[in-house]
Amino acid sequence: MKRVLLKLSGEALAGDKKFGFDEASCVAVAKQVKVLVDQGVEIGIVVGGGNFWRGRTSEKIDRTKADGIGMLATVMNCMYVSEIFRTEGIKTDVFTPFICGTFTKQFSKDAVNEAFAEGKVCFFAGGTGHPYFSTDMCMALRAIEIEAECILGGKAIDGVYDSDPHKNPDAKKFATMKMSDIVDNKLGVIDLSAAVLCMENKVPMILFGLNEENSIINAATGKTTGTVITV
Ligand code: UDP
């Protein structure tokens, strides 16, 4: 693969702590990304915000404001992971759809293409910049905009199952499935609106366990043990 969009769930970054950052998990991600960057793969990254805040976290706060807090949580996440990447020798830029002063650069396809040409990994922070969306939507949108070949979704769970593996020990993992199955059956694997966008724009996806050894490299090189979602 030449250009991919990697989605890191906030929960997976928090490791066993379930909140904030687990440095070892982030370093492990950085080391894998470095291997791929050194092979010439261009990588855009969307990070979730669930390790800090979700729009549904507080019912006392107006949804639009709560979603704003969620988007800012993803900015913190991207700044943190970006710095971990730099300590591992990876060049990075963090882009947001809104101005964050000197913390980030404003997103545009041209700016991203320039950064890729300089060998940088590009973080897409701040979600879509709009409330009532999610980082899954940002993932789909940015993948389409930057013309990524595939979305690699690193999650706390290692693929798509026919039932909840935490509740059913006999749950079976799908090796492959169609994006239209997710849309038609409203499977909660990714946001429905994001799945529709991927289906209409023909962006395939691989969902895998982020905390498994070499899972990002395996996903990018056709050796995943997760679920491949075709379009
Ligand atoms: N968010 C938003 N717009 C976006 C992306 C994210 O409003 O384009 C907010 C929303 O409140 C969301 C939070 O940021 O709950 C964290 O994003 P993430 O997608 O990780 O949340 P989740 O879908 O897991 O709740």
TrEMBL record:
Catalyzes the reversible phosphorylation of UMP to UDP. GO terms for cellular component: cytoplasm. Homohexamer. Gene3D superfamilies: Acetylglutamate kinase-like. Pathway: Pyrimidine metabolism; CTP biosynthesis via de novo pathway; UDP from UMP (UMPK route): step 1/1. Inhibited by UTP. Its EC number is 2.7.4.22. The gene is pyrH. It is an enzyme of class 2 (transferase). PANTHER family: URIDYLATE KINASE, URIDYLATE KINASE PUMPKIN, CHLOROPLASTIC. GO terms for biological process: 'de novo' CTP biosynthetic process; UDP biosynthetic process. It catalyses: UMP + ATP = UDP + ADP. Its main location: cytoplasm. This is Uridylate kinase. Belongs to the UMP kinase family. NCBIfam families: pyrH_bact. UMP binds at residues 49, 67, 128-135. Residues 2-208 form the Aspartate/glutamate/uridylate kinase domain. Keywords: ATP-binding, Cytoplasm, Kinase, Nucleotide-binding, Pyrimidine biosynthesis, Transferase. It is found in: Cytoplasm. GO terms for molecular function: ATP binding; UMP kinase activity. ATP binds at residues 7-10, 50, 54, 161, 164.
